[in-house]
Amino acid sequence: MQTTLTPDVLYAAYSQGYFPMPDETGEILWFRPDPRAIIPLDGFHLSRSLRRVVTRNTFSVTYDQAFSDVMRLCGKRQTTWINEEMRSAYEALHRTGHARSVEIWSEDELVGGVYGVHFGSVFFAESMFHRQANASKVALYHLVTHLRERGFTLLECQFMTTHLHSLGAVEISESTYMECLEKGLSQQAVF
After folding, report:
1. Residues contacting 35, CB < 8 A, separation 6+
2. Hey, which of 95, 140, 143, 168 would disulfide with 45, CB 3.0 to 4.6 Å?
3. d(CA 33, CA 78)
4. DSSP state letters, 14-73
5. Which residues contact residue 48 at a Cβ distance below 8 angstroms, ignoring those fewer than 6 apart?
6. Which residues make Cβ contacts (< 8 Å) with residue 152, sequence separation at least 6?
7. Exposure on the CB side of residue 5, measured as CA atoms within 13 A
């Protein structure tokens, strides 16, 4: 049975530890991984080379100025789970103020970004992209800094990858994740 991805359905799913991802046929599947990848907000790994890029102000950063473009560019890959239904659902969630983006610009060109979902004091990172070296890392750096400054308690990033691990992501058990999620949803933070 196909579920329509409305903002209410997405909130119910995220608040119970699930997130949607379509398979190759487009059918929406629901995932609740164990272990779960998170980036501790005080544990982002800023390498020397990335620190140089950030301090040089090579890029400019904006928030929620090009959400649809970030989502579209995150989906421009050989294989992607970001289909039209997902774009439409997350754009509807964005209009409610619960899907957010960080955009990285080189002059007037969007060269990197990350988008995700925000409920309570939890940010669920969905996807990121880059069209210039380091642009997605810079986006994630600014996201972590932004969340930390605004009192967020949890940055969830679904599955561990080598790339996320190099930036400080860790895996936690489902039970630990659900405790952190419950606490984070009970507190409010303004993106």
Report:
1. 160, 171, 172, 173, 174, 177
2. 168
3. 24
4. HHTT-EEEE-TTS-EEEE--SSEEE--TT-----HHHHHHHHTT-SEEEESSSHHHHHHH
5. none
6. 41, 121, 122, 123, 184, 189
7. 25
Tens-digit pLDDT profile for residues 144-174: 999 999 999 999 999 999 999 999 999 999 9
Owner of token pair 């501790």: 40
- Give the domain ranges of the chain: 7-185
Q: Element (H or E) spanning 154, and its range?
A: strand 154-156
Residue 35 C-beta-side C-alpha neighbours within 13 Å: 10
**Could you tell me which of 164, 176, 162, 98 has the C-alpha nearest to residue 128?**
164
Question: Along the chain (191 residues), what's the average pLDDT of each consecutive run of 10 residues?
Answer: 82 97 89 97 92 91 98 87 92 97 97 98 97 96 97 97 94 98 98 96
The whole-angstrom separation of Cα 147 and Cα 153 is 8
What residues are paired with 37 via a beta bridge? 171
Q: Is the pTM of this model over 0.90?
A: yes
pLDDT of residue 19: 96
83, 2 in Cβ contact below 8 A? no
pLDDT given at position 3: 66
CATH of domain 7-185: 3.40.630.70
**What token pair was written down for 172?**
């936690």
